[in-house]
Amino acid sequence: MRGLTRDRVVSIALLVPAVVAVAVFVYGMIGWTTWVSFSKANDLSFDMSLNGLANYQSVFGNARFQLDLRNTVVFTLFFVVSSLAIGLLLANLLDRRIRAEAIFRSLFLFPLAISFIVTGVVWKWLLTPTAGINVLLGLPQQSNLWFTDPTVLKIGDSALIGIPIALFSLVIAAVWQMSGFVMALYLAALRGIPEELREAARVDGASELQLFRRIILPLLAPVTVTAIIILGHISLKIYDLQQAMTKQGPGFATDFPASYMWQTAFNDNQFAKGAAVGIVMLVLVATLIVPYLLWNRRQEAAR
Amino acid sequence: MTNGKLRVLAVGAVLTMFTLAACNQGGTATTGPGGTAGPTDAAAACASGTTKIEVQSWWTTGGEATGLQKLFEQFNKDNPTLCAYNAAIAGGAGTAAQGVIKTRTLAGTPPDTFQVHMGHELLDTYVNISAGSVLTALDTSIIDPSKFPAGVVKIISGKDGKPYTVPVNIHRANELWYNKKVFTDNNLQPPASWADFKTVADALKAKNITALAVGDNGIWAWGMVFETILIAELGVDGFNGLWTGTTKWDDPKVTDSLNQLKTVAGYVNSDHNALTWDQANQLVIDGKAGMTIMGDWANGDYVAKKFTDYGWAPAPGNAGIYQALADSFPLPAKAPNPDAVKKLLAFMASAAGQDIFNPYKGSIPARIDAGAPPSGGQQYNDYQKSAMSDWTKDTVVPSMEHGAAAAPAWKSAIEAALTTFATGGDVAATQAALVQAAKDAGF
Hints:
By secondary structure, chain A is an all-alpha fold. Chain A has helices spanning 6-37, 54-61, 63-94, 101-109, 116-127, 132-136, 167-191, 195-203, 208-236, 240-245, 257-267, 271-302, and strands spanning 152-154, 162-164. In chain B, helix 9 (252-265) crosses helix 16 (427-440).
């Protein structure tokens, strides 16, 4: 009867609701969605008999979805890299023991307190070609189309591969919101680096640049990984910002799988195809998160 | 500042982020739980002992909500044992409500009746499905087809020829709105054909005035322009045939329409992608644009903005053709109170009911024998009077963009083709996409 001490009973009783909730509402729903994505449930009859890979074939063959995948890759790349770079820069500037540091810190962190919907609406106003920034800075309206610019910078001959200019408006808004958060992460990590390490490097004759590249950056690596994971999963699932700001954009330049999924499932009644898009998004996020979780576990085991 | 404090800050930042994310989700979730809060309140207004009729709509504010409320008040007064109430779900121009209604229908617990666009959005979602219709066809005790234009009866009827929904109002989609001062200053008349349109547009362009204001942040606004061109090129039978398979999408006249659309795209405001339809309307009000093509809810926008110097005409080449869309209310097979809701639907289909609702909504009655609101109630305005006169003599065609002509998935495919066309401009590829869309839709 070693297993059933009072403590154990209590802890199991406390755990059960959470385990059941996660099992049903996370893994149960993933299982259900997976089934729907292989079914014939493409109208309100909700026929759950299996349909093979037909939904996935249809979705991947869809021109809009192909563009959505392109946009996701481009957006994620620019959003994550810019947020990291700006966040790191801000953190290093603040780490110089400047005056009124607390004020600047709050200023940079403040956009995080706003939802993507608000950010989207405000940046939409700012970047509408006939208003906002163009007027404020006296920029020519016809040549600064921002998110209404249909241009796609082609890479190679494929019609599909390229960088849509309109996406950068979304990147700007998202980076504005999230770089302060990255700054906070980096700043905490920077303050965690013992002063002795820097001193030792300086004594050894390292320049400030060498110090940063060889000592500081490697020590910040775990934070960078964390930031990439958090930013990456936001980026892969982006929906609210795009809905508030640009919708599908010119020629689907700012369309993403989430909005395609929503329209397919809840507007067009193609539930199975919508579920297939959802599963594709899940796989995308999982390829980012799962290695991180494994890496994390190994780190903890090593400790 | 100590490391400890900074760690707290970083953790706090993470927590804030997740809380905010949760709040965001909470925001969108108002479609579900938040939405049900409204109905409960509305239902609470019903006296105890009455049979409550749950009417699920997306009308939460403005003239439309008031109109529905007035209609219910009269119905509840006439039927003291019944109580119809508006279980409204706000958001997304009805998309949020439609999601809830579909979910409830799937679960077998639909409301007594619900708001849905008349036509294929309704028929292809609820009636023409593999497991069989989840709606009950309406008999003549509820709706008398002889009191509605033949075009409307066709739009609301299933493959069995029976009507499945009660259209409570009619909006016109193919209308041209123009700034009178801009037109008189430049000695212009509203264009009667698309050839005229080019002449007028060139004259305006020469004066640095945007010819046609478009706000296609949602592509449907541009789709409506395309539809008016299709109507002008193909005529009534040709246009109707697009949706029944008798007109092929590879028809040369569809090619002409796409070329025409491309021409028109040269005359619209450069920021059309960033604007909504009412922001485009504002360009007309400000005299920065001469015209816009929009449904007749534009009239409500002018009235609300207290702008009077506007004129209206059928879209170029659309004279004598009334492209219609309507909100309608069907009878779910599993409605909890079928007898009560049948009475309500019959009242909604009556001239009396339609004349209470429509003056507030800014639309016109679907019935041809209505047009006399009760004294003391809201009266029809000048635009509505002119629309009612057109309604009784014009030929009715359905609106694709507003759910009457095509199934939702077909509409999405057409919109996708137009979205790409708006930037690439390749006529042949777009027409091929339109042909494929029709094929996928079963035509």
